[in-house]
Amino acid sequence: MTFLFRKKYFKILLTLSLPLLFSSLFLWLAVRGMDIKKVQIPLSKAKLSWIFLSSLFGILAYIIRALRWNLLLKPLGYKITFSNALWTLSLGYFMNLTLPRSGELARSTALYKVEKVPVDLSFGTIILERMIDLLSMAIFGILALIFRYKAAVSFFHLTMPSYSTKHTHNIISFSYTQLGLVIIFFAIIIFLYVNFRKKILPFLRGVLSGVLSFQKIQNKNKFLFWSVGIWICYYLAAYLVCFALPETANFSPMDGVFIIVIGTLGMLAPASGGIGAFHFALKTGISALFLSQHKDPALGSAVGLSYAFLSHGIQMIIVIVMGCISFPMLAKAKKVS
């Protein structure tokens, strides 16, 4: 019994510590060699009006996602309230701060408690959402490659120093870092497979029904409208932050497209809340933008970190506030149901 308890405790500890390890690693990569004062100066000049406006679009994305989720669940025979959709969504984002991608399951579980929607069905609709997000991200990526090709190439070279013959030491150290990340990633995949292989097939049947719910949506134009609206909100939430900082206030709309692509890549890393990975990605991305515009890439790195701390800070405040509100709201809804 003691051995089983210790084994279970070790698994929980390992599961929670790995994302923190990723965050710490990427945050170290982001701030190493940086003069923190150069990062603080742009932040001290940040304009609150643009920060507030960015926050509004961040919250609006929550609202539109909640509305769209109802469209996906209706064909499955479940009409949920807007309130329950919004707060289970908020809970899911909040839980992602502890363990990446855990929020999707937490969101489905919470919805079952207040609306009795089977977890596998709602989880399937969430997977469909992620597939649509991936398609939307691909469109933004194509636009970034077309209109900011030089910046994309610069970003590739800055993140892959092995292509430079001038920094042999950095090549070796970064290669080992990449190898370590790959090993940890596959260790997580194997861990999940071993623990869930016995339950995965029955669960997938329900998930598939959720994914296929798109075929049964009656108002597909409305669904498309909400889907486009979500990513317009994401884009504006990211781009408007540029106007808050003097050094990025002259960024064009296409620079904003490049920034949201780079930022999303950072958020995809298995780090708690994208902490560290987002900062490293934006530091490198804005440095690449500066380089493509024949500006000092070192200054771009400092400005990129300033932008990352500000933009990510806004996101975290929204996630934490909305997440904290979701607990009493869902507890109240559960009593009513």
Question: How many strands in all?
Answer: 0
Oligomeric grouping of the chains = single chain
Poorly predicted spans: 163-176
| Helical stretch tally | 13
Distance between the terminal alpha carbons, to the nearest Å? 38 Å
Shape annotation: globular
Order of helices and strands: HHHHHHHHHHHHH
Structural Rg: 21 Å
Biggest beta sheet summary: none
The secondary structure category is mainly alpha
Report the β-strand fraction as a percent range.
under 5%
Question: Can you describe this structure?
Answer:
With 337 residues, the chain is mostly helical. It has helices at 2-31, 36-44, 48-73, 82-95, 102-115, 119-147, 149-159, 168-196, 200-211, 220-242, 253-268, 277-292, 297-336. The chain is globular.
List keywords for this structure.
80% helix, 13 helices, 0% strand, mainly alpha, 337 residues
Q: What is this structure, in a nutshell?
A:
With 337 residues, this protein is mainly alpha-helical. 80% of the residues lie in helices and 0% in strands. Helix 3 runs antiparallel to helix 10.
